[in-house]
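Progress against Task 2.4 (sequence-to-structure conversion) is shown through the following example record, which the project officer requested during the mid-term review.
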Amino acid sequence: QVQLVESGGGLVQAGGSLRLSCAASGRTFSSYAMGWFRQAPGKEREFVAATTWSGGLAYYTDSVKGRFTISRDNAKNTVYLQMNSLKPEDTARYYCARARLGARLTTGEGYDYWGQGTQVTVSS
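Structure tokens generated for the chain above:
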């Protein structure tokens, strides 16, 4: 069983930064792509970013390109989401997830394990 635990959320003013972390249990972390999703109240869950197993490739939704950076440290079984220039519309609960092997990384259906999420609130 894989467990994913997110941390690093909080309240920040617009223009500020946060770094989210997702610690994964298990010895096969480095074999899987990982992703970040978010869900705001009353809205559907949306893809934010994903990285391949090696961290060599990264994918972002258009609204965060140039502001967010996904990275991973396979030695620490951890994936990160550095969020800069935060906007009020980034307010949401952020979830990390482990991708199924060979799955499409930009949709939730491509992931089989999810964390409980961490809340990010950006004030204007």
